[in-house]
Amino acid sequence: LRRNPGENEFHQAVREVLDSLGPVVAKHPEYADAAVIRRLCEPERQIIFRVPWVDDSGTVQINRGFRVEFNSALGPYKGGLRFHPSVYLGIVKFLGFEQIFKNSLTGMPIGGGKGGSDFSPRDRSDGEVMRFCQAFMTELYRHIGEYTDVPAGDIGVGGREIGYLFGQYKRITNRYESGVLTGKGLAWGGSQVRTEATGYGTVFFVEEMLKVRGDSFEGKKVVVSGSGNVAIYAVEKVQQLGGTVVACSDSNGYLVDEKGIDLELLKEVKLTRRARISAYADERPGVRYVEDGSVWELPCDIALPCATQNELNGRDAAALIANGCAIVAEGANMPCTPDAVRLFADAGVLFAPGKAANAGGVATSALEMQQNASRDSWSFEHTERRLADIMHGIHDRCLETADVYGKPGNYLAGANIAGFIQVADAMLALGVI
Ligand code: NDP
């Protein structure tokens, strides 16, 4: 705490992992001897930089850019960029720390990192977003590369932003280095299914949770928070598997559509028009729009928080439990507060932590890197099958590890321990570096 003052989200993420590691260190004292945990908590490198750019009115704007290169024991640093006004070092470090274990769980050769800026693309013109991205990359380019550090998208960074970032990287370096960024467009080195991967992957994970209990999505009522990249494709996959998503949200409010979300309309509003979800409610009769309420007040069988960190607190958890919710899976990073997670455990609600449940995005990014390295591109069906297999593998690894360490059925402990062991073993093998 003294070493990283004021970085609340980072402390929260570290504490959650360390809480699970007691049985591991008891069994493997060599991790403690080599100070593996203390080394893991200290990023290998942190870069903070000025991003000056000119807005449409000719005014110079200054934002702050970050890239935290956390751990490269398993491969090049890998993790998204977040553009949101709330971004500061504590957020980037929490995300980078989580990313180490998530990437390890995928079984792919990728280390952990994260970055971003306190820039908000919302209400900015395309030209402004482009100039900001160019200014951001004008500094970032010297720190990244196919074998060094490979950023991708996150909140506020989608296909448009990745395009502008890649264009500037290409211009500055004079290299068509496809593997330097993931989440690229299909015409210029992107992978099928990357856009859908995080949302689809979260739902594949829940499908496995249901399957081992002899159940399925058929007939289940699902509530999703957020209405961005992760949320939209979580809705899509739930519907394909026979569930009904009755609600989604944005930071202004939530909508309830008891007939089931009209995916085409949601995509039109969010992806084409870049409008608020209240516009969806305006256009579909019978839809209720609630400003400033909590979407977790709604009764459901399965809850998928897909918006942002700490969006589901103890009170929300109590409401979900009282309404009979049986499964909570984190599509977002750390959306559930520690007291919410404790309440779920006490009530026997199955809980899938983000580092396992939302790992499909980064796993598909690693598949994009594979395709770039072999100058190949795979079909949608093949890539989706690979994603489903990876998510099933992560699910099984979490359950098996939880069993081995005396926490049967505890996905949180299983994810933390399995993710940790692989990185820790690599760090031991590479020596004290
Ligand atoms: P988007 O920017 O596409 O969408 C974010 C959604 O969350 C929007 O609906 C946004 O609403 C809402 N939101 C953001 N901040 C807040 C807030 N403070 N309070 C309430 N709602 C908020 O981001 P993504 O869908 O890509 O990311 C969502 C989550 O998933 C994040 O936690 C991210 O780290 C995580 N994630 C994303 C991956 C990816 O591949 N994209 C991979 C793994 C995890 P509004 O428009 O009102 O801001």
TrEMBL record:
The keyword Kinase does not apply. InterPro entries: Aminoacid_DH-like_N_sf, Glu/Leu/Phe/Val/Trp_DH, Glu/Leu/Phe/Val/Trp_DH_C, Glu/Leu/Phe/Val/Trp_DH_dimer, Glu_DH, Glu_Leu_Phe_Val_DH, NAD(P)-bd_dom_sf, NAD_bind_Glu_DH. Keywords: Oxidoreductase. Residues 191-431 form the Glutamate/phenylalanine/leucine/valine/L-tryptophan dehydrogenase C-terminal domain. SMART domains: ELFV_dehydrog. The keyword S-adenosyl-L-methionine does not apply. GO terms for molecular function: glutamate dehydrogenase (NADP+) activity. It comes from the Bacteria. NCBIfam families: PRK09414.1 (NF006929). Homohexamer. Belongs to the Glu/Leu/Phe/Val dehydrogenases family. This is Glutamate dehydrogenase. It comes from Saccharothrix algeriensis.
